[in-house]
Amino acid sequence: MSKNRKNKPSRRTKEEIKSELSPLALFVRNRREELGYTQEELAFRSGLSARFVKEFELGKKTVRLDKVTELLNFLGGSLEVRKRGE
Q1: Residues in the chain with pLDDT < 50?
Q2: What does the alpha-carbon distance between residue 52 and residue 85 come to, in Å, rounded to a whole number?
Q3: Which domain holds residue 59?
Q4: What is residue 56's predicted lDDT score, i.e. its pLDDT?
């Protein structure tokens, strides 16, 4: 008699994960890694929650713009809004 085992999903490589991220989430992750911070350290230093940083880096679509701006400012980045096609 064999036991039923659940098939575990294969682990994605770092490159596969990065290829699925938005350019903004990728900027935050790369910049955080350049600075040598964990997600928790970045959250603490920027005054944001670790949950926000983690979800943002994972590509959560519904985030508050003020928090995104605060995070980008801390990392030395900025957000520019332009009319489409420009």
Answers
A1: 1-2
A2: 31
A3: 22-74
A4: 93
Q: Which of 40, 17, 45, 32 is nearest to 77 (CA)?
A: 32
Q: For residue 76, give Cα distances in angstroms to 16, 27, 32, 39, 67.
A: 26, 11, 11, 16, 14
Residue 51 counted as domain residue: yes
Which tokens is 60 given? 């959560």
Give the pLDDT confidence score for residue 79 in this predicted structure.
Answer: 84
Domain-located, residue 8: no
For residue 37, give the CATH number of its domain: 1.10.260.40
- Residue 41 inside a domain? The answer is yes
Asked whether the CA dihedral 4, 9, 54, 52 is positive or negative, the reply is negative
